[in-house]
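Exercise 3.2. Students should predict the tertiary structure of the chain below and write it as structure tokens, then compare their answer with the key that follows.

Predict this chain's 3D structure.
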Amino acid sequence: MNQSIIFYNQANEKLVSLPIRWENEQGLILEKEKLAEIALNNKIDLDRLTKIITPDTFTIAFNEEKATSMSYNQWETLRSQQANDAIQEKIGESTLEQPIKNQIANLFNDFNQGMAVKYQGKKSWNAIYEGLLANIEQLLK
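Answer key:
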């Protein structure tokens, strides 16, 4: 059971880690006032939140008015996808020629897909980096 949980406001890309106290298999949120740091203090139903906290909850992500309990792997998959989305935008804005942009974009997309599979427990770090190396070799040919 985690001793703290990340509370993540997707709308403004802010997060705060709050301590959790466990009583009778239920996670109780401590230091609730810190939710104001990520603009959530008056938008959430704390009683409802405690009901979605499980022993494997790593993060509670807020997207508009919905809160989702996430395991560590789900959290890492989300953040990896967000990072890939941001880098894809930068690639699109770059002054490189379109074929090069496409190759670089595919390299990041393949890497990100590998990470998603890894966080499902179906791919090793070695396999991810071997795939990355193979893609870089293709790019440099």
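Discussion points: The radius of gyration is 19 Å. The chain has a mean pLDDT of 91.
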